[in-house]
TrEMBL record:
Keywords: Membrane, Transmembrane, Transmembrane helix
UniProt superkingdom: Eukaryota
Protein name per its UniProtKB record: Uncharacterized protein
Residue intervals passing through the bilayer: 16-40, 46-64
Length: 83
């Protein structure tokens, strides 16, 4: 017998971290554009620094996302099987 979907099968609401990730992606894009502009003006040191900061932000964003997914998975595993 097929019944209404349970609460666990419904999609989760939009995360509060989604706007933070969007802002981080915009900052990364801005750093990439600024590094291209600084390369155009032959500022190699500034371009290198901006690319390094961009990569650091990208890695931090990926680590934060993985930690959040791991916490969600751990929380899900702690629920009793009857739920």
């Amino acid at each position: 017998m097929i019944g209404p979907p349970s609460l666990s099968s419904l999609p989760p609401p939009i995360s509060l971290l989604l706007p933070v990730f969007v802002i981080w992606e915009l900052v990364i894009l801005a750093f990439l554009v600024f590094s291209a502009v600084s390369l155009y003006f032959k500022r190699l040191e500034l371009a290198f620094i901006l690319v390094c900061v961009c990569l650091l932000l990208f890695v931090c964003m990926k680590i934060t996302k993985q930690v959040r997914i791991a916490r969600k998975k751990k929380r899900r595993m702690l629920l009793p099987l009857s739920m």
